[in-house]
């Protein structure tokens, strides 16, 4: 079995890994709340891609633009579907010619807060991520030069690229496609979940079960990896999803320690971004939580505890971005 | 050549076919305006499918639901894409496994006003049309029983179908899927185009070129078939699109007179629903108008006339429905 030793640490030690001096016996839940952070209004904006209205608007057009796929009908929004939590809710992505990819589609929601993109973290930024699916044979299957050439045919795109990148003599190019899409994606955040309201001081925002679930989530050790504003450490951990033969991060680094390791996914909106794991092999959230406890923490949740943790996870569903489809040329 | 004799009628006679006693020499444009009708707020509602808020909401969900396709990623909205004038703006529809169909995707916009659906009119109503693409091998490729079974798995759909069809003991069935989708589609209308405002008395709503184009459109005979609120007679006419071998209405009726005949498409929003003709073989609106004049009316538009008619056709672009994607279960 490809397990790292800490996968079998006891819950107490797992908690210790995060907090050097935990004060578990406090009267209120400040200890628990401090593991997390309300979702900021915006993720970090890179210095070399300032976020302008023009870029966001253009990025939204490109995100919904199927004519930069070789079939002409697949866009970013096909798999990152606004109607489906900005993912596809099927086990593995289906793209060009109906081919099935090997991995589950991650949601775009709050992705700007992650420090590693894709399940294997092969790109650090949204800009780095954006062009991958356009070119991938099993996704949009479009040569990037052809995609750029297609966009250049439209006067509307020529105007929008010029407005978004006023300093560029030839603004329609692959880098700018990536910058615009990334700028749009940084607007796709889900603030004001019950958990955010709770973290900001509204104690009534969570039910008793949800608060109990939050405590369990921390005490058992889930928060060792699922912490911070999007409940992900953006780091890599070995996990063995049912039926998966995917070597994960190892494919990127060639480092044996990375074999079968995957980037910790965000848990924000986890209740509406099923199915779970790198290969989408588990549809039920109770089952997913049980397996994570068992495999990552050596902890066997009882049915009652699972109900509470799942109740807590439902409190991570925030307000979906209100998006109307753009009018494409 | 498969031409009907009236395809070569002179413009004057073509005009006579529509109006028995045309008064061509009026001072104002009342004669021309009377050929058309401002778009009503809603199309006719069938007696056996009353339009309720619950049906519309459910129909919107189903319209955007890709999990009733066998790949799990193709929905009605894939080809009838809100970002692309509720069509796909490619020559021929691309569906399951990337297969290309033989016909251009008609827009859903204002489709409730047509008395015949599909290019060959094989269904009269939106209810009759709605299930075809779900089951078609080259579109969503989903067995209808399987589609219904898939919907039954979701508590949210069970609730929505029960609310939309309160008198049905088993409300989730294919007929009700069709009724709900049709109800939603009847909301997808595009009122208040410049031409509508002109027809209602706002003489400044059209430019001089657009008014000249409207007159030409009537005088040359286009309005013989393109008349009424959506500028379609919902009838069948033989047309020979470049490269088409499609037998059209003949496939439905077996009637020799219908060979190569197609239902007159609506011209509402024609400027944003390119490419044109049954096989999407022509992308340019000037070229499409020229070919229609030449082939259907034996009239060769000059370049200046084409500009005017095309300007008029641009005045048929109305207000797009403001749709936010539904939140699917």
TrEMBL record, chains A, B:
Entry's localization field: Periplasm
Keyword Repressor: no
Annotated keywords: Heme, Iron, Metal-binding, Oxidoreductase, Periplasm, Peroxidase, Signal
SUPFAM superfamilies reported for this sequence: Cytochrome c
GO-annotated molecular function: peroxidase activity
Signal peptide range in chain numbering: 1-25
InterPro entries: Cyt_c-like_dom, Cyt_c-like_dom_sf, Cytochrome_c_Peroxidase/MauG, Di-haem_cyt_c_peroxidsae, MauG/Cytc_peroxidase
Top-level taxonomic group: Bacteria
Residues annotated as domain Cytochrome c: 54-155, 208-317
This protein's record includes keyword NAD: no
Principal cellular location given in the protein's record: periplasm
PANTHER family on file: CYTOCHROME C PEROXIDASE-RELATED
Protein name: Cytochrome-c peroxidase
Species annotation: Plastorhodobacter daqingensis
